[in-house]
Give the backbone structure.
Amino acid sequence: LVSSLRDWPPEPAPWRSSQALQGSSIATAVDNSGQGIRRRFKEFFAAREHLPKPSGSLVPEDPTVLLTIAGMLPFKQIFLGQEVRPAPRVTTSQKCIRTNDIENVGVTKRHHTFFEMLGNFSFGDYFKREAITWAWELSTKEYGLPVDRVWVSVFREDDEAYNIWKDVIGVPPEHIQRMDEADNFWASGPTGPCGPCSELYYDFKPELGHEGASLEDDERFIEFYNLVFMESNRDASGVLTPLENKNIDTGMGLERMAQILQEKPNNYETDLIMPIIDSAAQLAGIEYSSSNERIQTYLKVIGDHTRAVVYLISDGVLPSNVGRGYIVRRLLRRVVRCGRLIGIKGKDAFTPKVAAAAIALSGDCDPAVAANAERIF
């Protein structure tokens, strides 16, 4: 084990009462900007012998999926034992696109088409105990989340993970919930590597207590970190076969952690998306803060979809009538429609001006976006 694990096991985290922490705020003396959260995540795991890797393309090599939908996708063949691992441990911030919930974009507090997934990965190296311990340390010490506001879920049959959370970390049993496959068994698709998972949730309303609390209550809880214990391969008939090595695949939603640490009411009002929204509002001669809910929803759609289109075009996907190109076309049409609905007028296209705001934010996520600005415009 590396030096950070020589004093194993760690002392259980002290558990402060909810009453003592009611109304407490996230520490603001550290860099909780979107860029800062991304950087601190990668530095945390680099200090624990993880090799930092750049984001893969939104166009995956995997023929079973249309777009990169998860942080683990660039490593799928490594998990399956079909490619040589670049290092035993890796950390990334991966660009992702999902369009299955497109109608919820702008409507809910946290649905997106484009998002960044911060991840730490182990290819046959460490497993549950280390992954859980580091997730807790990152969340409560590095990011400073109050310990009584963090809840966890485990797969219903995963006694090992449950006992690590309870006995090693010191999380009270009332803050640990067992859940079924729909919530706590993860796979990137119908076939491929998969396994049980443990998720970390942030509690926005700790004053409600633990009695009857449901982690599926989106008004109270937000899931921000998923630890997948990748140990099986599912074939086309649904049969699970143990992988040669037990692996760790994690994902922390950058936008979700930004909402928590920046203390915003939703992901859209963080510094990762709000400058794009502000640019669209300025073009329409309005202000987001004084707009009604309907106009704010249109502005959120513009902010989200513009990010998606900018990164897709940068990765070589151009508008068309089929496949990935149709996704770009559909997203662009929704941006234009929402722009007209908020009052953007004129014959000239406004999308390049909004795209410029997204490009200005792209440097730490993907430096290639700025280099491809002319093609994007």
Notes: Residues 1-24 have pLDDT under 50 and may be disordered. The CA atoms of residues 61 and 74 lie 8 Å apart. The longest helix spans residues 293-314. DSSP finds 13 helices and nine strands in the chain.
